[in-house]
Write a structure and sequence with these properties.
Two copies of one chain form a homodimer.
Chain A (H helix, E strand, L loop, with lengths): L4 H13 L2 H8 L3 H15 L4 E4 L2 E4 L1 H28 L5 E6 L1 H18 L4 E5 L5 H7 L5 E5 L7 E9 L1 E5 L8 E2 L1 H6 L2 E4 L4 H12 L8 E3 L2 H9 L4 E5 L4 H6 L3 E5 L6 E8 L6 H12 L2
Parallel strand pairs in A: 3-4, 3-5, 8-12, 9-10, 9-11
Antiparallel strand pairs in A: 1-2, 5-13, 6-13, 7-11, 7-12
Helix pairs in contact in A: 1-2, 1-3, 1-4, 2-3
The first copy, chain A, binds a DNA duplex through helix 3.
DNA sequence: TTTTCATATAAGCTCTCCTTATCACTGTTG
DNA sequence: CAACAGTGATAAGGAGAGCTTATATGAAAA
């Protein structure tokens, strides 16, 4: 390609208006500019493009052929610009979020709902996987945002906390619970805990390990919601996230056991690639999240 | 569209090379120019297009979407330019020629053959119609060149003679022909002439009319070749174009009758729209014709 | 004729876009 | 480990492409 692309836009408009003067008015430049530009283009392409007459200009045979191509080129560019504008206004686009079941259901759901209501044309996809895999998904570009239990660390990622949560021990309503438990005491209760590969379980284990206590749960399960249900039917004492068990606590299906000192609070956080700018949808979603932080 | 199209070519190349520096080298401009251009483009579109890193750049999500569009735009332009180049080299294109049967067969045929041999990729189409209609076809844009019997006149057309022809009276080989005929004498022979709507017939009639002679042919037919055949079997005296009857005259199927003074010569000519530039194929075809003029 | 509406051309200026030079950073290499 | 080679960003300044205005030219309409 030898010729300036900008000439083609002028060529395009001129052909459409079949007149140098009209095109000039429309493009807010002088007729002279058009005339010079077309002459230049004709010279560059070594081809006469327009037939000049008194009532304007008409494309030559060669001009018509060129016009077809230029037209589709210009339209492609216009499509591109329109697309970006729409993305910008969040009228289209997509967003892939990686998050575990529990976080999705207990924390993200209302945000997802609101986001969809606000930007109905953004396609949201959830990438559900194992807690530790989430960050990988982001690093591989398979998800743009991940919501995970903190702490988590990664050089390539920006990880920010967005929601503080508290792990508490709960039991069924009829459970004969003392007023206050020490860590040793609670460790001796019949425990129902999450499986070892979960980050919540790791967190609890680590904290107890600092006190040189090893937890030996009677039951290990995978889902947070089962912890609550098992506790409520007196299968034992569960360690659950207080914020995720609000409803059941209020209804009295389970009751919180006082632990002294309580487990330190931890956070849910979001992660994204440090060096990649966030897409508009991702930005918008995080804005929603941040309003509540 | 607000943005300079030229930026998009730089964007395109930069995206392809995934590097400002490499693209710069390839485009024979400075790396700085690319950097500025992309910054400008990003500002104009209000969208980050590239993720800068130490080992080059990568398109953002939005950049990728834009790239798809830009790519097809640039390819369209390239197609257009290639197309023109091919037309220019006469590697493609088409040409519609209007000409009557006789002129096509007796005059154009060798040129058509040679043209096709020289430019095998140009599609030639013949528009065959009534002698007077030819010029209309050109004016309507349905044919680009017309070959007609002169004289012919039209403000919109450029009409040039390209082949001189001579009308002669011929008779069968056994016909008892005197040495020399006056116009009155020939008019009294049993004439076989073309039909009245043909320009050849008009030409003969007009010339005789100048001498106040009206021709009353015994037979009127439409095709030039039949004139020869009818004369050769002694149905009468035909008026034919000498140049188109060369073979039969040489073979002695017919013989020329001396007319004194002879009918003035006339020409075949070509016609094209005065204000339209000729397409490359038409130009090339005429060049072939003109070599022999 | 004269007027009017096209495009073409001339001359000059403006401002875009490119250049050079330099910085800042990182990963590589002697 | 320091110097280098490669990345992109930034500053400043200059060249010239591409615009402007003004005028010429030509054909059709009045």
């Amino acid at each position: 390609m030898k010729t300036k692309l900008d000439y083609y836009r002028i060529f395009y408009e001129t052909a459409r208006f079949a007149s140098f003067s009209t095109a000039a008015r429309h493009l807010y430049i002088s007729q002279s500019a058009i005339s010079q530009c077309i002459s230049q283009l004709e010279e560059d392409l070594d081809t006469q493009l327009f037939i000049r007459s008194r009532r304007g200009v008409a494309l030559t045979k060669e001009g018509k052929l060129l016009f077809q191509k230029v037209e589709s080129a210009i339209q492609a560019i216009e499509q591109g610009e329109t697309l970006l504008a729409r993305l910008h206004k969040l009228e289209s686009g997509s967003l892939i979020i990686a998050a575990g079941d529990t976080i999705t259901r207990e924390y993200l759901l209302p945000y997802l709902e609101q986001f969809h209501k606000t930007y109905p044309n953004i396609r949201i996809e959830m990438a559900n996987s194992y807690s530790h895999h989430m960050l990988e998904l982001v690093k591989e570009g398979k998800a743009e945002l991940a919501f995970v239990n903190l702490p988590a660390e990664d050089d390539e990622l920006c990880i920010e906390p967005c929601h503080k949560i508290h792990d508490v021990f709960v039991c069924g309503p009829d459970y004969n619970a003392k007023k206050k438990y020490t860590w040793e005491e609670i460790a001796n209760e019949p425990l129902i805990l999450l499986e070892k590969n979960s980050s919540s379980r790791n967190y609890i284990d680590k904290n107890f390990a600092k006190e040189r206590i090893t937890l030996n749960p009677q039951i290990e399960i995978a889902a947070h919601e089962l912890l609550i249900q098992f506790a409520s039917i007196h299968l034992g004492v569960s360690c659950v996230v207080k914020e995720f068990s609000k409803k059941e606590l209020e209804k009295g299906l389970i009751k919180e056991m006082k632990l002294s000192p309580p487990l330190p609070s931890r956070s849910i956080g979001y992660a994204y690639l440090r060096h990649n700018p966030l897409s508009f949808p991702a930005q918008a979603f995080l804005d929603l999240i941040k309003r509540d932080v």
